[in-house]
Amino acid sequence: MAASTPKAREGAWLWLVKIIAGVLILVVLGVHFVMNHMVAPGGLLTYADVVRYYQIPYVVAMEIIFLVTVVTHSFIGLRSILLDLNPSEPILKAATALLSVAGVAAVAYGAWLIFTIAGRG
Amino acid sequence: MSHERWTVTFIVSRRKGEQPPHFQSFQLEVDPDEYVLDGVERIWAFHDRSLVFRHACHHSTCGACGMLVNGVEKLTCITPIRSVTSNGGKVKVEPLRNFPVISDLSVDMSTFYTRMEETCAPQVVPVRGSALPYEKGLFEQADPAYERLADCIECGCCISACPVAVTTPEYQGPAVLAAAQQAFSLTGHAGLLEKMDGADGVWRCHSGFECTAVCPSNVDPAWRIMDLRRKVIGRRIKRLFGLAK
Amino acid sequence: MENQPSPKKFLYWFDPRHRQPGTWAFILNRITALGLTFYLVLHLVVLSNLTKGAEGYDTFLEFARQPVVKFGELLVIAAGLIHGLNGLRVVLTTFGIGVTIQRQVFWMLMALAAIGTAAFAYVMFFVA
User: Fold this and answer.
1) Which domain, by its residues, includes B163?
2) Residues of A whose CB is below 8 A from B111
3) Would you call A1 an interface residue with chain B, using a CB distance cutoff of 8 Å?
4) What is the pTM of this model?
5) What is the ipTM of this complex?
6) Model confidence pLDDT, tens digit, residues B149-159
């Protein structure tokens, strides 16, 4: 009797993408706190503050990187949690499709939001 | 052995066929330096001949007597009663987790054994190089011709303790991944890396390190899983640059 | 319950009894992962207030200054620190760093998370 062949589903590359995104989040957060403290020491307390803040190109770049890495890391992570539950092939396929679409939509929406605010300066 | 006598209550998980499991208590007078397996055997010998459990060698070589003792996986033949309770205390004995129960304390490990066999991990390994890399200096001077039995005694304690194995029956589990790591280290058979590069392989581990904590035989499955991950990633990167088939 | 593995047993993931620090780390990481993902969705939805211009957003910011909301933010910061630092331990051990001292690494990183959370709490409630 042979035991069932281990399923691939999540390989080294997907795992690495999740981990690299995770490390990038830590780096970006670190830079963010230091820079934010220098750019806006009192915090962003009004709408006008936020719009002014978004005029700085580095802020926009950082927000975009943060958005992409956070969404990537969290959505691959959600899929990993699902994999811990040993889902059937159709359920996993549906979840992967759903998470991919939702991830792309979240990034598109976030980017639109960032550029909309930046454009009001 | 001391001449101390302790009164200890063994609370034993009982399960026959499709009946729901229940616990049965047995009060025993023991020498605290006796082992938990001695107590279980005495229950069988003097209290209830229908008690089913596995054991053979009594010296941590056969790996048959793994059980859950007070909630933690133990190889009961080398677990002194003194180390798990006190005089007047309780010893709760249950079957290993994550395996189907055959009867009482005995579980069906056939799928696990098949998976172990499928890694083709050698049962006998050269003494030199058989130590874990962080055990500096151990066996370094050994004659290259000398061989020894591999550390893993296939007791299944690590599979039982793994917090992820509880939901994923198809996860290969710590011992199997550790066997794959050892087999790959000795044979360089890349098929093993391919096989374990997946959700049921090395990537299902969530670094709980429970396997290493309960392993009675110095296999350190968690260390080996981490090592296997690096080997898998290394091979993927090499293949990306066309350096490996 | 049957003794063999089953997805229905997922609540056992969160049972810390008789477990090692490694599993406590796993439990913390799983809870914070779900919490932070929920927050991410909430955050993206809430920020749509920005498109409503100055009035809409400033009304929202007024709401956000309530202590309850601030406490919620502190929870997010704590979760972020715990998850991020624990994640670092997973990365380090995978790449062979500190595998034999992962328990100590766990305690050290969690102490850092506690100190970080306390610092943020101080600034949020007593300085800002």
Assistant:
1) 110-240
2) 3
3) yes
4) 0.94
5) 0.91
6) 999 999 999 99
